[in-house]
UniProtKB/TrEMBL annotation:
Keywords: Mitochondrion, Ribonucleoprotein, Ribosomal protein. It comes from the Eukaryota. GO terms for cellular component: mitochondrial large ribosomal subunit. One of its GO terms (biological process) is mitochondrial translation. Its main location: mitochondrion. Residues 18-91 form the Ribosomal protein/NADH dehydrogenase domain. This is Large ribosomal subunit protein mL43. InterPro entries: Ribosomal_mL43, Ribosomal_mL43/mS25/NADH_DH, Thioredoxin-like_sf. It is found in: Mitochondrion. Belongs to the mitochondrion-specific ribosomal protein mL43 family.
Length: 119
């Protein structure tokens, strides 16, 4: 995703094994989907990395110095493409759990309105 017109994902590393069965889907992804993904995203540095004896994964590096790793073992090429586009569209921020369902600067003194409120 672009923040103020600047793509936040700098680098995407595709790690795979040329022998293992869990890397079958990512090897098919590299043959079929990866060239078109690379053409559609010229702003992205895309690197393939051969790691023997390890499960395949996608590692994303963002401009705010954060990184995310997604394991893609035993996935189809379409699922791997979905994960790659989600990593590209992410801002790279850490996930923050909200304490309440709504966030406001001025909380209500009377309480939150619900449909069960009786007059």
């Amino acid at each position: 995703m672009a923040l103020r017109g600047v793509w936040q994902l700098k680098k995407l590393i595709v790690s795979y094994c040329d022998w293992g069965g869990s890397s079958r889907g990512i090897r098919a992804f590299m043959e079929s989907e990866l060239p078109t993904f690379k053409e559609k995203n010229p702003q992205l540095e895309l690197v393939t990395e051969l790691i023997r004896g390890q499960h395949p994964h996608l590692k994303a590096f963002y401009k705010n110095k954060n990184e995310r790793v997604v394991c893609v073992k035993n996935m189809t090429p379409e699922d791997i493409l979905l994960h790659a586009t989600r990593l590209r569209n992410a801002l790279g921020r850490k996930v923050v759990k909200l304490k309440t369902r709504h966030v406001t600067k001025h909380p209500s003194v009377q309480g939150t309105w619900t449909t069960e409120v009786k007059y």
